[in-house]
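U., I forgot to send this yesterday:
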Amino acid sequence: MGKRKTQRNNAAMLDSDDDNSSVSSSSTMRSAGMSVSGTEEVELNKDSLLDEAVDNLYEKRGSTREKALASIIEAFNSNLQHEFVEKKFATLLHRCLNSIKKGSSKEISLASHTIGLLALTIGPGDKAREILEESITPVSQAFKSGYESSKIASLLECLAIISFVGGIEPEETEKSMQIMWQLVHPKLGSNVITVKPSAVVITAVVSAWSFLLTTMDRWSLSPKLWLESITYLSSLLDKDDRSVRIAAGEALEVIFEMGSLEKFATEAEGSNNGSVSEGNKSKEGLLHIQGLRAKILNQVRDLSVEAGGKGSAKKDLNYQRSLFKDVLEFLEDGYCPETSMKIGGESLQTSTWSQLIQLNFFRRFLGGGFTKHMQENEFLQDVFGFTPKRNLVGGEHVSNNLKRMYKSPNSVINKARTQHLNKQRMLSERKNIGHFAVNVGDEDS
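Result:
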């Protein structure tokens, strides 16, 4: 077991090599920038370029708006734009929402990503809540305006991020999850037109859905709803597309870590005290849960040793095998994979599936801006319990943006989100929670 842990840690460290190099170079640039007399002038110039980009979002030509959004995204990735956001928050949000309502697929994708970055830059609070409330209807309608995979994937990422940051009540997060779920599992009705989702869309839906699932309390879940989702995710493990299988495996692992199957089985057994017919139904429900668990265990075992083929790259195949070996270990032994990656000389570590899902989602969303945000974004640091090294020059912090961030009223994490983060930390101390899902009903079998 110790050997497996070492391999996982080493693999995570190797995966973060690109991040390490970007950390070193950006730190060097910041240090050098402090000794250049024109630093403040450069920052003012950047602000004016951002102002110009926002102004260009009013232009009639779509290509002009697309270029403006791309430049805003680049600026938000390279630096945390706290002062700019304080001045232009409402304007930027509503221009992006206008792009989502009226723009091309490319413009919708860029605007969606910008809104997600806006929420991450602001952090939890009234403005993040406003982003969620103002955006959820336009985003939901945009899902129906066309089925281009890249556009749908960007909208899903946006909805996931703004719900994660701005959602305070569980009902708000669950509403977003239901909107996502309808894309791949629609409720049939006379006025519903079903379009078979592509593998890219299925993967994006399941990834965004499981990302938000990591924030939910298992005891508030509806057994019928979640058993339906588990059954559907199990069916995805048999699909030809490897990215779909991987996304489904990650989502199921979050469900197992939460102990949801154990919860459903307990409820089924607890209802045996009712009438004979209710007792029979609960017994059937318990048998169904046990059978579903056994089926998934066999699927996971097969995927952990799958031979090559099906047209996927070897790297993807190796990742699938590694992932499902970890899932199998968790289901059988309750062991969560521990990962570690270096950011600016400090280790960012995960010890639960929920943390790993969140980390991977943020890394995909932020791309090259992930390192910068982990070093200076207080909200993300709080999510992962990460404390970066501070670069000091004469006792002062090097980054002016960092100074401004700590003074910003938005840097104070709201009570509801803090409660969620505390729950995540408690989860990391209970690595063997998987036993609950695995051992359900063993005494009766």
